[in-house]
Amino acid sequence: MSSLRVRVDVVSAEELIFSGEAEFVALPGICGELGIMPRHTPLLTQIKPGAVRLKLPGKEQEEVIFVQGGFLEVQPNYVTVLADTAIRAKDLDEKAALEAKKKAEEAMVNRSSKEDIARAEAELAVAVVQMDILHKYKNRAETR
Amino acid sequence: MAGSKEIRTKIKSVQNTRKITKAMEMVAASKMRKAQDRMRASRPYLERMFYIASHVAKANTEYRHPFLVRRETVKRVGAVIISTDKGLCGGLNTNLLRMVLQQHKAWKAQGLEVDYVAIGNKGLGFLSRLGANVVSSVVHLGDVPHIDRLVGPLKPLLDAYIEGNIDEIHVFSTGFVNTMKQLARQDLLLPVPPEFRTPTGEVRKTEAQHGSWDYIYEPDAKPLLDGVMRRYIEAVIFQVLAENMASEQSARMVAMKAASDNANKIINELQLMYNKTRQAAITQELTEIVGGAAAV
Predict the structure, then answer these.
(1) B107 touches A at CB < 8 Å
(2) Is B218 within 8 Å of A42 when comparing Cβ atoms?
(3) Which chain A residues are within 8 Å of B56, Cβ to Cβ?
(4) How far apart are CA A123 and CA B232, in angstroms?
């Protein structure tokens, strides 16, 4: 395909998760899924919990990174994702995700204050997205 | 010559001191590793964050965030002093506070008012001795930087900046170069400076051009830019604090190592003196016995 590439950096406050070139990036924007090709016009948006998918040059399989939200900046030659917490899909732990989901659901049931509910809802959303990515990623890995 | 008993007591006491400094050295060494890892891990985030902030500053945005606007006249400045909570870390705080004092005098000479935020005990003590105007402070931060403990104390300064009461905010801190070397530094926090200075003093600039371009915002410019700027401030302060903590542990380890080495030297000298005194006493006793025998 095209030889156009865009530099992508995915950083969280804890570490530099990914830095390299990609042919295409898909991200969960707050207003919907975004697909960024090289030479995109400058764009600034917030992102919500979900998967950042990177199509790397010369590789069939996409690189998947889970983010818990953050900011995205697009410039024609590079894309920067400032994630609150980012985890590579490979490192996502299904057990931990399930447990987090269960805990969040329990917290929803034993709701006490507005703040608690809001927190529990946020946690639940994150856990659900994590599980989702895990399943997608696993299925793809198996079919290959 | 001092009695052998006194010298023995002295040796014991220096040995005890050495035990303490040795222990502190080892504690600092293990904390230092963790603090350095933490600091290195979050460096890329700040750098990217800064690039975004400076891109926003260069873009011809529909909404100008106050943090990005450089003001013509500066009447009042804010300063955030990041120091350690505890002492025994060499010249770390001394160097930093000397820099603060110089800048303070320079500001006063220009007729500027200064509002201080003190993060860390040593800086707070210094500022209150100086009689400076401290608007807020936070101490006892522990070994891990937590951004939520810093947001509150910074708020008065940021609010004053937005309202236009303060025209510049500076940060004084210690930058980590390597384990042996830490440098006191002064950085402009607000308005967002045009270039990024790494702790080792390198200057980095972004590639983005000044011009008539603007971002596409999803959903809206104002909340987005507010969010980005808030995060930028948090990232800067967090990183500066992480650097300061890594510097503190490194400086403490080096200082305590020097103290242990000095204690060793003193013990050696005292031991030599003790042996000489003992030998002299024995010799004297022998001469007395021989002399006594000859007299009989």
Answers:
(1) no
(2) no
(3) 44
(4) 25
